[in-house]
Amino acid sequence: xxxxxxxxxxxxxxxxxxxxxxxxxxxxxxxxxxxxxxxxxxxxxxxxxxxxxxxxxxxxxxxxxxxxxxxxxxxxxxxxxxxxxxxxxxxxxxxxxxxxxxxxxxxxxxx
Length: 111
Known about the structure:
The protein is an all-beta fold and 111 residues long. 0% of the residues lie in helices and 53% in strands. It has a 4-stranded antiparallel beta sheet, with no helix packed on it. The chain has a 3-stranded antiparallel beta sheet with strand order 1-2-3, with no helix packed on it. A hairpin with a 7-residue loop joins strand 2 and strand 3 (25-28). The chain is elongated.
């Protein structure tokens, strides 16, 4: 199976489908942005990052039950998460947290 995101307007949902083709099955359809990462070793859960209310956090969703679980509770507005991947034993998930910083530059024409 393949996990992927489908963008609809400003939202992005998590879907799965058989690797050899077929109808996609939407697992995460709530408003906001959800981007899938890696599968758990048992093939049931997909780690994904979700943007809701201005905060990025790490979640997983079960393919078989559609149950979702939030794993982190980041509350800052200047970071984002991406690239979640399960460890081979399924006891850890690695992901990137990046902080955005504003930089102001001043350009003075003629100098």
